[in-house]
Every structure is written in structure tokens, then in C-alpha cells.
Amino acid sequence: MYRYLKRAKGEEKGAALVEFAIILPLLIVMLFGILEASWAFAQQNDVRHGTREAARLAAVNYGDVQAVAQEACARMDIVYPATTPVVTITPISTAGGTGGLAQITISSTYQTITGMLDGIFGNLDIESTIEFRIEQPLSGETDWWVDGAGGSYTCP
Fold first, then answer.
1. Cβ-contact 107, 89 below 8 angstroms
2. Of the candidates 64, 138, 152, 155, which has an alpha carbon nearest to the alpha carbon of residue 101?
3. Taking a C-beta distance cutoff of 8 angstroms, is the pair 84, 76 a contact?
4. pLDDT tens, 81-125?
5. How many other CB atoms are found less than 10 A from the CB of residue 98?
6. Whole-structure pTM over 0.85, yes or no?
């Protein structure tokens, strides 16, 4: 009987290797999926941060669309070096003074970190929009507000 148990144990030497070979691709896909999802979340947070910063700058009359957009791009440290986000400021109300409403949108494309799951994550658009109220009257920077034209700027 001892000989039978010894022989049965010896015949299963490669079973763990086969099981690992079957499971390994699934583990790799899960690992890269977690990495890509985390990177997508970080990029989304960066775009949100840039939009909040740009809305605050526009609300306190930092300048025209280009000045606000350039500063918003400079404050995004994950998305901006890798992509060229588009900053759009659109007036909602016709009043360009204190209390006027506007919205700012920053949109970017997702840049994958591993490239392994481009079919799933490769063509994502990241966008954040915030509506804000003008806190300081616009002084000499009314070009982007007149006729509800707004403006758009692509980060260099």
C-alpha cells in the first residue's frame, strides 16, 4: 500500500505547473486591467482638477479664454504632458458682470499606460464640465462673453 501512495504522488508532479499555466493569462489580464482602470481614474481626477481650477480662475476674472486655459493646462500634471486637452468656456447668461453664469469644459483622450488593453480602454474620452458664477466683474475681457460666443483653446 505504501508503494501505491508513493507512486500516485509522483505522477502529479507536473499538475501544479499545468494549472498555473492555465491561470496565468487570466491573472495577467486582471493585473493589467487594474493598472489601466487606476490610470484612467487618475486621468479623470486630473481633468476634474483642471476644470475646477479653470472655473475658479474664470470666476475671479483671471483673464480671457486663452489665459484661463493656459493656466488650467499648467495645473494638470498627468493629462497635459501626454495629451492636448481642449478647454472651452461658454457663457450661459447674457450678463458679463457679477452674477453672470458660464460653464467650462475640459476634454481629453485617455492615454493607456500598458497598451495591453487598448481595445477596452484605448478610445475613452475624458471630460469634465463645471458651471460657475462670475464673482468679480469682467474688466476689459468681455470678448469671450459678448453674444454668448465663448471660446475654445487647445493646450499646446
1. no
2. 138
3. no
4. 778 888 888 888 766 667 778 899 999 888 888 777 777 777 788
5. 12
6. no
Q: Which of 100, 115, 55, 53 lies closest to 80, judged by CA? A: 53
Residue pair 99/134 in contact (Cβ under 8 Å)? The answer is yes
Query: Cell numbers at residue 153, please?
Result: 483653446
Domain that holds residue 150: 2-154
- Total domains in the chain come to 1
**What secondary structure letter does DSSP report for 146?**
G
pLDDT of residue 49: 92
Over 80: is that where the pLDDT of 57 sits? Answer: yes
Question: Going by C-beta distance under 8 Å and a sequence separation of 6 or more, which residues neighbour residue 95?
Answer: none
User: How many whole angstroms separate alpha carbon 55 and alpha carbon 20?
Assistant: 52
C-alpha cell read off for 133: 458664477
Q: What is the pLDDT of residue 139?
A: 56
